[in-house]
């Protein structure tokens, strides 16, 4: 068991041993619940046919939730980014998961990402709703910025579609003094007009 | 000497001891240069009559530099924030140093900051140049945000003046997954339209 646990990311030999001894001491029903959860992952997890997020049905819960605004689509790299945006409780639209970011050196080009599916999705009226805005929420690092630039280029000519990019700048609670030059430069050039 | 050095911020007893023993081993001219620099601080540092930044003359180097754009003023809390913005090499305007941020619990209200001087400066044409944009670059924390809100309110009614706020959002090189909810929420709500 220690060997198997040690293969998990972020679990080193010592943590694996600690988890293993913890499991020895818990009640059998707790072990059963963990085993059942693992079984559900193995058998049940699929990808949403609309957005590409992990799902336990053909359509994920967000894509099948009628209260979510289908005209607003937030494009992210990975399913874990969907969770990050959901935690903000600020976003009431839907998602599109690319499955990564452009990285030519690792052989990841546009065809390796779910970009064609995004274009199809914008072209079709899913559930009778047109997509009117695409928010590009790829990471603000080299690959994510390259992906954002590429997406802006291919989405530019679609009539009636607004394309936006999440803001880069100073994190909340931060301090100018401790911001790196690049971030503070972005915060300045991306300043918002208030009056 | 160890006692005196230990009074400096960020210098604990051990660092003070290390610095003291280092100074014992350096050449006398190096000590002279340090002493002279300290003397210049004691005798010479004043505040720029225009922007309130630290200066060695009536006007600081930035306010007296004709190549800087006097129509664009970046409002910051402290002189160290001027240095932070200068490091980005993105900003070619001038500054206004408030000398802090609104903090009613510590007794810092509008009258304790250089806000009246800012209004005077906007009213006067300094060197024949009108101020057309004020960029509020206070820290994105509670006091800095309160100060920004206050400044927007009092600057709102000045005709022909644009007021802007530096962007809050994800720092460059960052990752959605590790952003806190508040920052990611700001990055979303402050998204920039690209197309």
Automatic annotation (TrEMBL), chains A, B:
It comes from the Bacteria. SUPFAM superfamilies: Recombination protein RecR (SSF111304). Gene3D superfamilies: 3.30.60.80, 3.40.1360.10, 6.10.250.240, RecR Domain 1. PROSITE patterns: RECR, TOPRIM. The keyword Lipid biosynthesis does not apply. One of its GO terms (biological process) is DNA recombination. Residues 71-171 form the Toprim domain. Keywords: DNA damage, DNA recombination, DNA repair, Metal-binding, Zinc, Zinc-finger. One of its GO terms (molecular function) is zinc ion binding. The keyword Transferase does not apply. A zinc finger (C4-type) spans 48-63. InterPro entries: DNA_Rcmb_RecR, Rcmb_RecR, Rcmb_RecR_Znf, TOPRIM_dom, TOPRIM_RecR. Pfam families: RecR_C, RecR_HhH, RecR_ZnF, Toprim_4. May play a role in DNA repair. It seems to be involved in an RecBC-independent recombinational process of DNA repair. It may act with RecF and RecO. Belongs to the RecR family. This is Recombination protein RecR. It comes from Mycolicibacterium aichiense.
């Amino acid at each position: 068991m220690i060997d198997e646990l040690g293969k998990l990311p972020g679990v080193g030999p010592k943590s694996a041993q600690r988890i293993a001894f913890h499991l020895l001491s818990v009640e059998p029903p707790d072990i059963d619940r963990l085993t059942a959860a693992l079984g559900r992952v193995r058998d049940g997890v699929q990808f949403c046919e609309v957005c590409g997020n992990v799902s336990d049905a053909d359509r994920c819960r967000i894509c099948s939730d009628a209260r979510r605004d289908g005209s607003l689509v937030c494009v992210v790299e990975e399913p874990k980014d969907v969770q990050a945006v959901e935690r903000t409780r600020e976003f009431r639209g839907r998602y599109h998961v690319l499955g990564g970011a452009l990285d030519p050196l690792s052989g990841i080009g546009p065809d390796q990402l779910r970009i064609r599916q995004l274009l199809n999705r914008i072209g079709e009226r899913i559930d009778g709703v047109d997509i009117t805005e695409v928010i590009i929420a790829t990471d603000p690092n080299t690959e994510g910025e390259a992906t954002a630039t590429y997406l802006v280029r291919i989405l530019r000519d679609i009539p009636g579609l607004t394309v936006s990019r999440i803001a880069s700048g100073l994190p909340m609670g931060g301090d100018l003094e401790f911001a790196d030059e690049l971030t503070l430069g972005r915060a300045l050039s991306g300043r918002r007009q208030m009056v």
